[in-house]
Amino acid sequence: MAVGLLALQGAIGPHADALRALGATPVEVRTPDQLAAVDALIIPGGESTTMSKLLDTSGLAQPLRDRLADGLPTFGTCAGMIVLARTVLDGRADQNSYDGIDVTVRRNAFGRQVDSFEADLAIDGLDTPFHAVFIRAPFVEEVGEGVEVLASVDGHPVLCRQGRVMVSAFHPELTGDLRLHEQFLQLADMA
Ligand code: GLN
Asked: Cα separation of 92 and 5, whole Å?
């Protein structure tokens, strides 16, 4: 299975390593043709406002909207979560929403004083905690019907799923724990 990694901005190397370790083939996506060729997509962490601009200038904006509307299995991590959210709070005025999942997220929601932190998260469906790295992370303020909340920090959802879209406020690719990538690949196979 070819899993696209949106490679406009942000760190994709660790995601590629995780996918390879699970037997999937990572494919960098920078053009509409490349997006058309993948069976699933990961939108990595980085800076969501920059990613939003680059999606416009690369011509990927509309093709991405179309594929999301067609049910492309997609995993958005941190900035990727923001790109996929239906509504973004504290975004830039020109930051686009891709409406991949019915959640409202707030950027940099954990506050300026805590730029980064780590936490052992209890995640629905996992037997043991997942060590999660948060870097200027967003959190979810509201979820629509049909959105499952799989993990929260202080009552704020940080891992959600709706249909074949998963979003995490943290960076699951940074700790060598492959369980969320594995869950995503399972979700993507449920065609
Ligand atoms: N704060 C960043 C943003 O708004 C996200 C940070 C991250 O992806 N680690 O896009």
From this structure: 24
Q: Where are the domains of the chain?
A: 2-190
Residue 174: is its pLDDT beyond 70? yes
* Alpha carbon of 191 to ligand 1 centroid (Å): 30
Which residue from 43, 47, 92 has its CB within 8 A of the most atoms of ligand 1, so it is best to mutate?
Answer: 47
- Residue 45 Cβ inside 6 Å of ligand 1? The answer reads yes
Q: How far is the CA of 37 from the centre of ligand 1 (A)?
A: 27
Stated pTM of the model? 0.96
Establish whether 160 is a catalytic residue.
no
List of residues 6+ apart from 178 with CB closer than 8 A: 18, 21, 22
Q: Which of 15, 78, 156, 181 is catalytic?
A: 78
The reply to whether 78 belongs to the active site is yes
**CATH 3.20.20.390: does it fit domain 2-190?**
no
Query: How far, in Å, are 40, 99, 144, 177, 179 from residue 35 at the CA level?
Result: 9, 17, 27, 27, 25
Chain segment 66-103, per-residue pLDDT in tens: 999 999 999 999 999 999 999 999 999 889 889 999 99
Neighbours of 99 (CB within 10 A): 13
